[in-house]
Design goal:
With about 675 residues, this protein is α+β, with helices and mostly antiparallel strands. It has 23 helices and 21 strands. Helix 1 crosses helix 3 and helix 21 crosses helix 23.
Length: about 675
């Protein structure tokens, strides 16, 4: 293919010159020799690029071997980094410093350079002194250049075997194909699998000698590509391509009675209980509808879910199941993730140019899918703050090293976290158990408090379920993953149905459903005000939008084009059982403000503590709270004052938060 591709472009250029009735076109074509100046003139006049396509099945990047070199291949992957568009020489003009003779050399396409002759190529007259060694200098203004961009293509996260490192391959795009890809895009590239020497890449413009190493680096010389900008498909056309048999299967599945319960029972069937959590995960997988307003504003349709709970409540196992069943997914742990690894980073190119290039993180790679973040409470504050923009605006803005860019991060976030002391401590207040900022909590549509309740009847049923699971072994789940049974869908069927619903259905909010949501929103705010005049109003417009997204996700499960009253009622029930219950328990304050009376009492408690504790002294936290109570300060105000002083850095809580040390 590398031999015939330039000939094909030259032939297309000849036809283009003829069709334009260019002057001296026939003479140019007739006089065309092999790689002479006339052929270059034809290329310059026609400016034709041949872009090929392919219908063969894409190869995995890890399947590319030495036997594929110099052959035409098609690979699919995700763009992790892209360089700036640079000028690549396709023909360089050389001049001898001694005799002033000129020579034109064609540079092969792709990555690499050309070997400059070390001796003058002009035929010298008899008796004429030869030119010295290395006489040629490059004339940049007389050369021919084209745009070129180097990208790095990585395996799709769902195609990487467990325990393996994702493979990457470099790809070279030129002319019309360059500048069209950015990190996070999922594409299918087809071109020639070629090799180059790293030494040649560094001297691509002026190579003075051949490489001597026997090892070569493979890359893909791209002759065509297929990309999909729809975030629902994540740029991967295979996810939204369904044959006639699959279409009929999905339509039969939609007509199944109690489809909602069937889908919920298919979510992590090895986990006992937690029905509402599974319903929320199912709604999150289907997602809401993304909206683009006339002024350019974009309203997110992806649903974010947070699981706050005790250990041994199967939170991590649920996240692992979502990673398998979601069409596009990335799993990461909070302790092993940094701000740059989650969002994007700017790294210096390892070549001789030393330019900076952009590399996308986990949320960019999962564009159009789900990001599962385990151990969310173990993340550093500066790292969790970095994903604020990605969770609400669904973009990642970066301005580093002269690169200013905005990347898409249209993903749902499923996070799991533990309380401060590992599990919920009923003897402590909710503020002491939960150590999250209000700004990050308000970006989650559903917040579940997963408690390991001690109940004899429930413990017996759970133990019986786990023992039966071990008795069946792995064969039962393997069989159900292939074909499923009457109680739940198979893993592959559920995955395909989620992709089908996300790409085919975009429910609309009817006037009746909007009226129910409006009345419910107002009723919730009135109810909170009536219960406590001085309490904080926890329901805001952001939570109203969460209700809309939940109703859209429920409608997508049945492929309903309109949102009905049933969808609205179920969304309200889920919201009340999750976020509203967390708010009522005091663990989540979506507004973050205190009432005036409580604020005055907290300030008074802080003044008493400043007088009671000298700088550098330490005392028991229980003793401080007891002394504040003796002065008429409530237990809640005393604990809030300690927490506020701890966050400001006035005091430090030591010895498992039992000892207060005055810092300043």
């Amino acid at each position: 293919p590398g031999f015939y591709a330039p000939i094909l472009e030259l032939a297309a250029g000849e036809i283009s010159v003829r069709l334009r009735n260019d002057t001296d076109a026939d003479e140019l074509v007739a006089a065309r020799g092999e790689e002479n100046e006339t052929a270059s003139e034809i290329r310059r006049r026609s400016n034709v690029q041949v872009v090929l396509t392919s219908t063969e099945m894409p190869k995995y990047i890890r399947e590319l071997q030495a036997s594929n070199i110099s052959s035409f291949v098609r690979v699919s992957g995700i763009v992790t980094s892209a360089s700036k568009v640079q000028c690549k020489a396709v023909a360089i003009r050389l001049e001898c410093k001694n005799c002033r003779s000129r020579l034109t050399l064609r540079v092969p396409p792709g990555i690499g350079g050309v070997v400059i002759p070390r001796s003058c190529q002009r035929l010298h007259a008899e008796g004429e002194a030869p030119c010295p060694i290395d006489p040629y200098v490059v004339l940049p203004d007389d050369g021919e250049f084209r745009d070129q961009q180097i990208i790095k293509l990585q395996e799709l996260p769902e195609e990487v075997p467990t325990g393996e490192v994702p493979r990457t391959v470099m790809a070279s795009l030129d002319r019309a194909l360059s500048g069209r890809l950015s990190p996070g895009m999922r594409v299918s590239l087809f071109g020639i699998y070629s090799i180059f020497s790293p030494r040649e890449r560094g001297r691509a413009q002026n190579v003075s000698g051949p490489g001597t190493g026997a090892t070569r680096t493979p890359y893909l010389h791209v002759l065509g590509m297929l990309q999909n900008s729809d975030a629902g498909a994540g740029g991967r056309s295979e996810l939204t391509t369904f044959d006639l048999e699959e279409e009929e299967q999905m339509q039969r599945l939609v007509r199944t009675p109690n489809l909602y319960e069937l889908i919920v029972s298919s979510i992590a069937p090895e986990i006992y209980g937690f029905d509402d959590v599974k319903r929320a995960v199912a709604v999150m997988l289907f997602g809401g509808s993304r909206k683009h307003l006339p002024d350019g504003t974009r309203i997110r349709g992806d649903i974010n879910v947070l699981l706050l709970g005790d250990p041994s409540t199967a939170k991590s196992q649920l996240l692992k199941f979502v990673e398998k069943v979601a069409p596009i997914s990335v799993y990461t742990s909070g302790k092993g993730s940094s701000a740059a690894g989650l969002t994007a980073s700017v790294v210096r190119d390892g070549g001789s140019s030393g330019d900076f290039r952009l590399e996308g993180g986990a949320m960019v790679l999962a564009d159009g899918g789900v990001v599962c973040i385990d151990e969310f409470d173990k993340m550093r504050i500066q790292d969790s703050v970095a994903i604020h923009e990605a969770m609400e605006q669904q973009t990642i803005s970066i301005a580093k090293a002269g690169i200013t860019s905005v990347l898409n991060a249209r993903t749902s976030v499923l996070a799991a976290a533990n309380p401060v002391f590992g599990r919920f401590d009923d003897t402590r207040s909710a503020d002491e158990n939960i150590d999250f900022q209000t700004t990050i909590l308000s970006r989650f549509d559903l917040i579940f408090m997963v408690r390991d309740t001690r109940n004899d009847e429930m413990d017996y049923a759970k133990a019986q379920f786990v023992l039966q699971l071990h008795q069946r072994g792995g064969g039962a789940r393997a069989n159900s993953a292939e074909g499923g049974d009457a109680s739940h869908l198979s893993l592959e069927t559920l995955k395909r149905f989620i992709a089908y619903a996300r790409s085919r259905c975009a429910p609309r909010l009817t006037h009746q459903a909007a009226g129910i949501l409006r009345d419910t929103y107002v009723r919730m705010r009135q109810q909170v005000r009536q219960n406590d005049e001085d309490s904080v109003v926890p329901i805001t417009v952001r939570q109203l939008e969460s209700l809309v997204r939940l109703t859209e996700g429920l409608a997508k499960m049945s492929l309903s084009p309109l949102i009905t009253e049933t969808h609205v009622n179920e969304a309200i029930r889920l919201f009340k059982s999750a976020t509203m219950e967390s708010v009522a328990s005091g663990a989540v304050n979506l507004d973050g403000r205190l009432s005036d009376a409580l604020k005055l009492e907290v300030e008074r408690a802080q003044e008493v503590m400043h007088r009671r504790l000298p700088i550098g002294s330490s005392t028991s936290k229980r003793k401080v709270i007891f002394e504040l109570k003796n002065q008429g300060i409530s237990d809640q105000s005393a604990r809030l004052a300690i927490e506020f002083m701890n966050k400001r850095g006035d005091v430090e809580l030591r010895s498992q938060r039992k000892l207060i040390h005055r810092v300043r």
